[in-house]
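Example 3.2
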Amino acid sequence: MQCLICHKAIRVTWPLSYLMLPSRKEIPPICEDCQSGFYKITTAVACPKCGRRQASLKVCSDCEKWQLHSTYHYANHALYQYNEAMKAYMHTYKFQGDYQLRHVFDTEFPHFIESFQGFDLVVALPIDPTTWTTRGFNQVLGLMGSLKNSAILQMNRAQEEKRQSQKKRQERLKTGNHFQVDVEYRQQIENKRVLLIDDVYTTGKTLRHAAETLYDQGCGCVESVTLCR
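Structure, written as tokens:
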């Protein structure tokens, strides 16, 4: 099997006794060298509100600013740091459209999502129609593997507007809310606990807009999980 990222052959050695077992360990989707480029976030040194890696468990300065303007509960949990290796991965997966790369994390990430229990609905952030046309897939759904997604949100961004990935930080923070709850679900989500899923937490603007939309429709609690922060 070849590494999905560098395409080198993956060599795995197993003891003879292991080969005789009825169930065998699956070959990893990427090689050890590529795997070593991704760094997991340790909750002991991360912001408890957004998951940003830092030297303490204090709420980071970005989240302190968000708290000044919000009256609802919200927290994000991230699995990996958004470093150069992750940036390169996202570029190839999302913007070059290499859908096979969903398999790099489509086992580990769903397990991470499932570790957050007590939520009624798991909701992948939707993409706008223009992105569907150009990319052909929702990258978040790809990362979720076989997990069930509740498609209660819709995104309606103007065709001529830049996507978040094309905007600088200050432009992202000024972006309007393009989310709305599907009419069929508006009564069903009242007082429900919702776990939003996204690939990258950058400024938090997109996820917070989604959370605000759900709270406005009567959700009882909204948090999120992202692959990286």
